[in-house]
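User: Modeling request: complex.
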Amino acid sequence: MSGDHGHGGSQVNSGSKGSDSHKHKDKHKDKEHRHKDHKKDKEREKFKHSNSEHKEHSEKKHRDKDKLRHSDGSSDKHREKHKEKDKDKERRREEKIKSSDVDKPKKEKENGYVRDMSPAAIKSEPEEDNGFYPSPHHKNAKREYDDEEFEFKPKKVKTEHDKKAKKRKHEYEEDEEDEDIKPKKKTKDKKVTEGKKAKKEEEEKWKWWEEERYTDGSKWRFLEHKGPVFAPPYEPLPGNVKFYYDGKPMKLSAPAEEVATFFAKMLDHEYTTKDIFRKNFFKDWRKEMTSEEKSKITDLNKCNFSEMNEYFKAQSEARKQMSKEEKQKIKEENERLLQEYGFCIMDNHKERIGNFRIEPPGLFRGRGDHPKMGMLKRRIRPEDIIINCSKDSKQPKPPPGTKWKEVRHDNKVTWLASWTENIQGSIKYIMLNPSSRIKGEKDWQKYETARRLKKCVDRIRNQYRDDWKSKEMRIRQRAVALYFIDKLALRAGNEKEEGETADTVGCCSLRVEHIKLYPKMDDQEYVVEFDFLGKDSIRYYNKIPVEKRVFKNLQLFLENKQPEDDLFDRLNTSILNKHLQELMDGLTAKVFRTYNASITLQQQLKELTCPDDSIPAKILSYNRANRAVAILCNHQRAPPKTFEKSMQNLQTKIDEKQNQLSAARKQLKAAKADHKASHDEKSKKAVEVKRKAVQRIEEQLMKLQVQATDREENKQIALGTSKLNYLDPRISVAWCKKYGIPIEKIYNKTQREKFAWAIDMAEKDYEF
DNA sequence: GTATCTACTTAGGATTCTTTCG
DNA sequence: CGAAAGAATCCTAAGTAGATAC
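Assistant: Request completed. Predicted assembly structure:
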């Protein structure tokens, strides 16, 4: 064990933050390090849904200056308290678990199982509104899964013997399966001798979506796994690879050397030129040094890692050059690891784990202007890991000579293992793959919630428009914020701890400096210009005309404020979500993003798809619809490094094609002249042939040009995120069915696995 | 009401694998 | 066939949001 000294057990808050006692809402930061460098500057058109115009009325102003600000000099977070707190926490958790009915015998039917309908699970009475969904989720009852109740097919409780009704598949799902199942098979023929009531059950394809869901808030009955895979131990550098300090070679102790290699590996990365990164790295590196090293190495600028850097480059080059057999071997080893650790058994089914490897140690790479970039991410040991599994499972064994931090049996959560990370002190989890039942159900549910929003969005929109006129400042702020969230698909914008993360915002945390108001701009009135860094420090830039009333409200909110003050000083996400919850059961700010994304896709597909188009043309339309959503959601990417070049290549092809074309045209002309002169059949034919050639080349050229446009449009837009997280897959599936597009043209294998439920259940007439 | 903790979704970039091109 | 381009997958950071503590 090389890398990790000293950080003992209770790392809940050990080290790091010194920021503790200015927690109040006041935001006086030095503007200094506030996103100077917006890396992405392209303006983007926005998609708006049409809002019916409301008449303007004269505006009565409300003044509300007394903000919520105050300082409280919070003293309650002293470290001494932590131990007690921890104990307390533990006690509470234990109680919680106990009270859950994990162990209640009643639901375990010795052979297969039936999901429980415990008292807590009994559905509550249907509710007002459209009467469409049954249960308001009672505050104290766990959220139940019954949202989508009425959308579901009749449920059957399947036991796993139930050999699936494969036959019910629709044609192209069949296709899909054919080509899909093979790769799968190979990972499949392991016998699962699950300890439980299991049997071989190589579930051909388990249709969890046809089964009952838990309604008592529990996530599983049985859970067994082998624990995580740890990062390989540090391998010291060979003796001939040296580190130089101040020009002289210096042998480092193993711990110091390991951390040095983290830096050395990143030498080519821009990170290592950043001051904060270097500062943080150096500070943490010194912690790993022996006292001797510490006294010698005092200046990072005198450190020369280039030999180490060369070594690693050579290594990766060598890896590439390995022979087929060697590569094969590595592949097999990985496969073995995957088979052993990559799956778990949850409720009688073998499910793929999403991330069964523990994150290796390294240097923290925050995004944007992250104050902690370069800090050392320490090595995670078994002693840091909490294992979660069911009591009656075979517990995972820690590596020889080690212990888990804890083994618990909490079926109210979905994770298999967790640890506390040392940079932010947050908890990391090992969870299942998106194709798993537990993720899939949740995903499905998400879209059902969004569909419920569709049914009442008009009402909600009317309401917030009304609220723009409220006497109460907080209501107006809430209403304007909600308008932005709805219209612009902004994120909610939770507060963040200052100085702990990059300075980014969402709707509720927008500051005065992030918007500009233009009563008139060109031919438009009441234009708001947004310019801020959102999640992942991606810039959001947009100019958008808003309704007069919104504009007036914004002016009001801005009065007497400094640039660094909150725009919505009377609002936060918790207030907003509480309000939304009252408007619709299960409604939160993020549902608007899902809803607007999905509805936009559906509507764009309707608009853009020409039934007579060829398949590639239809797919182009699909991508355009997808792109509309990505633009709405501001999903950007850095233009690929090779972008310019690949564009050039394409352009070259286009040029060639153009030359071909003019050549062909010339020939056509010549042929025509020839024909005119001779008027014979032969020359007439020649003309036709040439004409055809020209036409064909024109088409090819067109295609290339479309491709170029498409690629250019996609330069800094990422389609994947919306496809994976915001677009109800049933819309895409239905579209494919309707137009006879093979589903693989839209979803790759992984995506098909994730969306198996949608592929199985959506028909061509599916409406979001 | 506010701060903190926890669990889980969403996100872009890095890395690896596969296909295409010369 | 090898390199380059492109697609898929991996990785893990950075959000949201609910629960709980204070």
